[in-house]
Give the backbone structure.
Amino acid sequence: MEELSIKIKIGDREYPMRVAPAEEERIRLAGKVINENLKKYKDQFGINDKQDLLAMVAFQFLVEKMKKEAEETGTTGFIFSKIDQLDKLISDNLGSD
């Protein structure tokens, strides 16, 4: 599969990348979201240090990812619990014939 050469600007720097065509839109959107969050933190807290801003954005994204994973784990556990209950009901009813 052929890859595209693109540049993504994050903060004041450009980063050259090689990406699959199917991923280009997602990667460009990720760069846009990072830049929007950098601006939000800069405006909200008056921070101008790029490294501090990038650290805050990275931290925010990691917290969101961890929260989502915890929610998915909870949902998955609930679903497996219900499947186990259904399996027991079916087994009990099949065994009683």
